[in-house]
Amino acid sequence: MTTVETRYEPDRTRLGEILSGQPSYRIDQLWRGLYDEGLEIEQITTLPKDLRRDLATLLPSALRAHTDLVSEAGETRKWLWELRDGDSIETVLMHYPGRSTVCVSSQAGCAMACDFCATGQEGFRRHLTTGEIVEQVVRAREAARPRRLSNVVFMGMGEPLANYDATWRAIRRIHGDLGLSARHITVSTVGLVPGIRRMADEQLPVSLAVSLHAATDSLRDDLVPINRRYPLDVLLEACREYVGASGRRLSFEWALIEGVNDTSEQARALADLCRDLRAHVNLIPLNPTPGYPTVGTSPEGVRWFRDQLVANGTNATIRQNRGTDIDAACGQLRSSQHAKAQPVAAPARRPR
Ligand code: SAH
What we know:
two-stranded antiparallel sheet, alpha/beta, binds S-adenosyl-L-homocysteine, ten-stranded mixed sheet
């Protein structure tokens, strides 16, 4: 666990404590430099030089760019960050017409053990801190300029609801201090029911996505092991609670695996679940990962599955797959460097 307080960890009150003895406008200057302008502390020239030097030591950056890769002519960018304790995580920035989305990690590794996911295959190492999560967003926001970072999705490495407190503090910071609207923040979960219930009690109506992947318990027990603890009826009840409390539309993620969950039986069962909850389905063909032999459904198979859902009265879209060539796509994030991918931009080394 990181013991040093990194740059985006302290809230305003805590920054005030760190700056005690300084005039109070120094807090505003530091805050503005970090949150509004995304500057390195050394670059916050409204602060005196000595103070900048002290603060840079007291509040080091949490992330050092180890690898920085781009794909699709820069429309997708992935960083492998080295954390202060030597562990590493990934963040992906994706530009679309009219919006830019950052996909952030909430844990180094993941304990949920979904076989088809590269992060699940490497196992759990530790939770990320609020500062490590928020800094991913700030770095992506700065990299996105002149485009405006509009969306944050917790779909990177880890299970955000297994790291609830740090994740929720980060969400409040992203909403309140970085100024993103709650509905442009999406928490994706494997289906941790207690976490979904806690979210229903929160004030911020963020969007909820559930990685469903199977609509019957027998298949889901296999694909998503946490289903044995929180089976579908319990999970769907928690989803219903969240939709009722937040007024937000629910979405289900469904990675189509050839011959496994792309059948008409699964399509019918899924449509039944969705109708009742008025949920939207995001379909994506399974992306290749090192430790899982089964392949993704063909493009025609994906369209066929979508048509089955639509014919059964369910809203379904096929998610545009991004960054497969740099292993930046859903389920491909992990901590090691990828031999086949070459850095196209010089790693942006920053002082820390
Ligand atoms: N743990 C959270 C957040 C991760 S989001 C969750 O499970 O929702 C990452 C998404 O990519 C999840 O929907 C996950 O199920 C999906 N995914 C994992 N491996 C994949 C793969 N190989 N191909 C496509 N999607 C995958």
